[in-house]
Design a protein that fits this description.
The structure holds two protein chains of two kinds. Chain A folds into two domains: 9-83, RNA polymerase sigma factor, region 2, helix turn helix motif (Rna Polymerase Sigma Factor, Chain: A, Orthogonal Bundle), CATH 1.10.1740; 89-173, Winged helix-like DNA-binding domain superfamily/Winged helix DNA-binding domain (Arc Repressor Mutant, subunit A). Helix content of chain A is 62%, strand content 0%. Chain A has helices at residues 10-28, 31-47, 58-80, 107-119, 122-133, 138-145, 149-168. The longest helix of chain A has 23 residues, at 58-80. Chain A starts with 9 loop residues before the first helix and ends in a 12-residue tail after the last helix. Chain B is an alpha+beta fold. Helix content of chain B is 45%, strand content 18%. Chain B is built from nine helices and seven strands, in the order H-H-H-H-H-H-H-E-H-E-E-E-E-E-E-H. In chain B, helix 2 crosses helix 3 and helix 5 packs across helix 6 (101-113). The chains are: A mainly alpha, B alpha+beta. At the A-B interface, helix 1, helix 2, helix 4, helix 5 and helix 7 of A face helix 1, helix 3, helix 4, helix 5 and helix 6 of B.
């Protein structure tokens, strides 16, 4: 009976929410849909809590749960044509703006960067975020996304090169230069 | 000595992410020392990593919405699938009223787009002005210190050259600006402020061509809007200034933009 399943550790769960929200926002491109996704993922996590091996990394598992919810929602959305595809290379990422206190980079650079991230295909975007911003190990990312490690690596390389080229454009407001 | 295995993309990724197997470290260190292009690529990627953290880490500090705290407690409120839509609208409305930058950036799109009433250019200008500029304590998105970048970026996003006129002679200094999304056209917005802390905005966007240049004045929700449409561009000044003041400023702006335009086309 589900009642006998032990509860998920409350403090760890709460601590993971900001990271889940961030990842969800990067996936969906808008904050309301991101919170819908996180809410749904938390509900799924409770339903499926027996699948979490106590003692293992709760955060990585929550990312996995949320990834699956996201994939299902996208399939549904495509089916119902509810949402504009986020994978399009074009515009439509107005939500890619950031509540920043700028640090060593200027605000314009950061905004441009988030816009470029928003234009990456979603499968590259998620790998980039999990590897660079969440700093998960490649094997963990492969598990979260249900793909081979080699695919993680190739998506990561493609995402990085795209961002690098975008920032190497003349006038992109960056000191980066095209190498080679 | 045998040649080491060539450095792969996977090595480079692992190296910049701190996930390189220790056994590979000597090979990549050696390659970095003799290959400046590789060294530059690694430096670029490290900088990229740092910038991504700078861009996305502040999101972690946003306050959590109640509904997620409830969800984390394992409660599944009745009708949770229906709730998001209702919550979303409320949040958007509240955030744009209370200046919440965190949620506001999405909320404003909601408000401007789904007003329900057909919105004219002047009305959108007034709404945008009230939302972003009427409160002097509200920070602008990009400050005037980055004016050049701001102007370049806005020009790129709007698809034509945008300029921020210099209104210091009228006592108005440029504070900064932003891109406003959510209207049917992306709009560039410049915010000016005078010594009395009065704010005025210039908004620029593409607009359907209407033949000759037309100057109009309108009052929307108590906000004066002086606007004109020329060569497929709409320009609008707004602020809590009286009509004469706005018209006077409008003339200066129009004159400056026209002369900048003429200088640019030479």
């Amino acid at each position: 009976m589900p009642v006998t399943d032990p509860p998920l550790p409350q403090p760890d769960l709460l601590a993971a929410i900001p990271r889940l929200r961030r990842y969800a926002r990067v996936l969906t491109g808008d904050s309301n849909r991101a919170d819908d996704l996180v809410q749904e993922a938390l509900a799924r996590a409770w339903e499926k809590r027996r699948l979490w091996a106590a003692g293992s990394d709760l955060r990585a598992w929550l990312f996995t749960v949320m990834h699956n919810v996201f994939v299902n929602q996208r399939a549904l959305a495509r089916h119902e044509k509810l949402h504009v595809s986020l994978d399009a290379e074009g515009e439509g990422h107005e939500a890619w703006q950031i509540p920043v206190r700028a640090m060593q980079y200027t605000r314009v650079e950061l905004i441009e960067l988030t816009e470029h991230v928003g234009r990456l295909p979603v499968d590259q975007r998620e790998v980039l975020l999990l590897a660079v911003v969440e700093e998960l190990r490649y094997e963990e990312i492969a598990a979260v996304l249900g793909i081979p490690v080699g695919t993680v690596m190739s998506r990561l390389s493609r995402a990085r090169e795209k961002l690098r080229n975008a920032f190497a454009e003349p006038g992109a407001g960056s000191s980066l230069k095209v190498v080679k | 000595m045998m040649n080491p295995l060539p450095i792969t993309d996977a090595d480079v990724n692992a190296y910049v992410d701190g996930q390189l197997a220790p056994s590979r470290a000597p090979a990549i260190e050696e390659a970095l020392a003799r290959d400046p292009a590789l060294a530059a690529r690694v430096a670029d990627l490290r900088r990229q990593n740092a910038t991504l953290h700078d861009a996305f880490d502040p999101w972690l500090e946003e306050p959590l919405p109640d509904r997620l705290i409830v969800a984390a407690a394992g409660a599944a409120p009745a009708g949770r699938r229906a709730a998001p839509k209702w919550l979303g609208i409320t949040t958007a409305a509240a955030a744009s009223l209370i200046v919440g930058i965190a949620l506001g950036w999405f909320g404003r799109d909601f408000n401007l787009q789904r007003e329900g009433t057909p919105t004219t250019f002047a009305r959108q200008v007034a709404l945008t002005h009230v939302l972003y500029a009427s409160d002097v304590n509200r920070p602008v998105e990009i400050w005037a210190a980055e004016e050049k970048r701001l102007v370049n970026w806005l020009s790129k996003r709007l698809g034509f050259a945008v300029r921020a006129p210099d209104l210091n002679s009228l006592g108005f200094a440029l504070v900064g600006g932003r891109l406003v999304a959510g209207n049917e056209m992306p709009t560039a917005m410049f915010v000016y402020e005078n010594a009395d802390k009065q704010r005025m905005t210039l908004q620029v966007r593409k607009h359907a061509h209407i033949g000759e240049t037309a100057f109009r004045y309108a009052v929307e929700d108590g906000v004066g809007v002086y606007y004109w449409i020329e060569d497929n561009c709409g320009y609008a000044l707004s602020g809590n200034l009286d009509r004469t003041q706005l018209l006077a400023i409008g003339r200066v702006v129009y004159g400056q933009l026209a002369s900048l335009e003429a200088a640019a086309s030479k």
